[in-house]
Amino acid sequence: MRALKTLLEKRAQRPTQDADVRRSLIESLYASPASLTIGAVTGVAVGLVVVSLSSGAAIHGVVALLCLVATLRVISAVFFHRQLVRGTAVASRGWELAYELGAWVYAGLLGLMAFVSLVGSGNSVIHMLTVSMATGYAGGISGRNAGRVQIAIGQVCLTLLPTATGLWLEGSTGYRVLSVAMVMMVLGLAEISSTTHRIVVQALLGKRDKSLLAEKFEKLARFDSLTGLENRMAMQMRLRDIFQSSEKRNDAVAILWMDLDRFKEINDSLGHMVGDQLLRAVAYRLNEVVQERGKIARFGGDEFVIICPDTDRVTAAGIAQELIDYFAHGFDLGENHLQVTASIGYAVAPQDGRDMDELMQHADLALYEAKGEGRNRSASFNWSLKERFNRIHEIETGLRRALDAGELKLLFQPIVDLAGGKIDACEALLRWDHPVLGAIPPSEFIPIAENIGMIEAMTGWVLRQACIAAASWPGEVRIAINISPASLKSPELPGHVIAALLETGISARRLELEVTESIFLDDSGQTNSILRELQRIGLRLALDDFGTGYSSLSYLRSYRFDTLKVDQSFMAGVSANAEDRAIVHAIGNLARDLSMDTVAEGIETQDQLRHARDAGFTNVQGYLFSRPVTSERIAEMIAAGPLEGAERPDPIVQTRRRRA
Ligand code: C2E
Ligand code: MG
Ligand code: MG
């Protein structure tokens, strides 16, 4: 027993192959109980025939032992094989040793049987049987057990060396030749076993490497290497599982979609290293706040998604607020202290979405809402958000087609000279009749066109159409065109302007571009240079909706605007509100002193008209004179002569009623 233990310990200290490979090799010993059984049954059958043909006690003893060992080996092989099939087998050293001992003893007994029969019996039939048995067995086993090469070589030696010795001792020439051949065969079979063993081990190592690589790739595919959080793919799989199980139970599942506010600016100004540090710190904080309540994934960039099973809307709102509050502490990253805020949108199943994709989309929509509402806050999904989104989406897709499909139309609204009543200019106003949604106001579709990068093409179209219209009008009536800030940034604008002027032949002084104060929010210098270039061409510039933006008077000093258009909200309040009246008067005085033209927008009543005149405005525009109308209608109105109504209100009202 102690000897066995020492043997086991010694073997444990041997430099072993990789445990998996070793296990596979041990399993290969037991993989085919059939071949082991055939070897055992054949050995026993030969033994019994030999016993029946000879009367020696030694041979009888050897055969009896052979039968016993063969039986034990078959039983143990079948037992282990069953465990293998069930998956409960433990390919331990004990099993390997058991096989090794059994194999060596069995091989030794076969060799001994041949030896005893060769030296103790003169029967050549017995010689032939035992020698053939030993030789055949050795040949077969050198391949079968090559997985454990020392077992195979040991068995070959134990079978063939006693047989070769017996053959030599028998003494006849033929037997001695055979004896020598058998020794050579031992060497040959040992070589075959070693080679086969090497090939098997290499194949197993290759298989192991492949599975290790596959494991590594799977990990890479599931996790975000920067933060160690799960990535988008892993999260989607997790969510699918949660949905499949919660669908049956109808449980609440909340998805919180978080995006850092102005992360790009941090990345751009402090560099990607700091950006990465921040993302890692954010991931850490998310873990700290969320803990067991949900699973966090990084969805790429600065977007993180948290899935909270069994979470209702109130709890989701609570988690979102905790996160926002925790972010308020700022982040210490080396020498940088960053004050970073986050916006979070959340959606809760089953109310907000029945499947994973829908819920994700709705959480994203809620995030969009949180951003739109001013950032550093959370927003819950609700179905009116979805309706708004659908409408925006429909407008977006419609816009891409509208220009080519001829769905856009340009109308013109007169800007009337207050003193003489004549039409000084007309403002071009876009109209879009959507085939399904009906008339969509420009205040709705223009910002969307800006977002999807359609505004430049639209501005180009408007410029051309407006100049064509102006060229068809009698006299020198100006045309005013609204230019959105996004268009003004485009270096193509001066080119569009020049092309429209050349094509239609109207003079640059007849073209007036209306811009709003928001253009000054971008101080990149680009807007500045484009404005100057347009003025150099000779265009007039108007500051539209004055009073609604920052109304910084420094703009009026930096740029020579030709016209100031006071926002219609002031004119709407001018009759009832003393403050509005005061502002309108102040603007009127200011513009007069700066020698600018002034337009009062949105004049609908005689009272508003009177106030515009009192404030010293040079021009008025509004439904009182005309709604936006077609180019042909404008041509008729210009031809009809000055709108005397500016001085005598009543006829103008009649004109408006007749023509609107
Ligand atoms: P805006 O440049 O201030 O244009 C004046 C708006 O006031 C027009 O609305 C006009 O129809 C409306 N209006 C004129 N008189 C009255 C009145 O007496 N009462 C009332 N309540 N409203 C009056 P509209 O056509 O809906 O345009 C809205 C805005 O959309 C425009 O404001 C302008 O900022 C933008 N827009 C219109 N066409 C274009 C365009 O071709 N390009 C760009 N970039 N923006 C445009
Ligand atoms: Mg305008
Ligand atoms: Mg305006």
Q: What does the model show?
A:
It is a single chain. With about 650 residues, the chain is an alpha/beta fold. The protein has 25 helices and 16 strands. Helix 2 packs across helix 8 (about 175-220) and helix 6 (about 125-145) packs antiparallel against helix 7. About 60% of the residues lie in helices and about 15% in strands. The strands form three sheets. Strands 8-9-11-12-13-14-15-16 form an eight-stranded mixed barrel, surrounded by four helices. It folds into three domains: about 10-215, no CATH class; about 230-380, Reverse transcriptase/Diguanylate cyclase domain (Alpha-Beta Plaits), CATH 3.30.70.270; about 395-660, EAL domain (TIM Barrel), CATH 3.20.20. Residues about 1-15 and about 645-660 have low confidence and may be disordered. The protein binds ligand C2E and magnesium ion (2 copies). One magnesium ion binds next to loops.
Q: Would you identify the CATH H-level superfamily of the largest domain?
A: EAL domain
CATH topology of the largest domain: TIM Barrel
Strand order of the largest sheet: 8-9-11-12-13-14-15-16
Q: What is the structural class? A: alpha/beta
Largest β-sheet summary: 8 strands, mixed, barrel
Helix content: 55-70%
The beta-strand count equals: 16
Shape: rod-shaped
Beta fraction of the residues? Answer: 5-15%
Instruction: Detail the poorly predicted runs.
Output: 1-16, 645-660
Q: What bound compounds does this protein have?
A: ligand C2E, magnesium ion
> What is the total number of structural domains?
3
Give the overall pLDDT as a whole number.
88
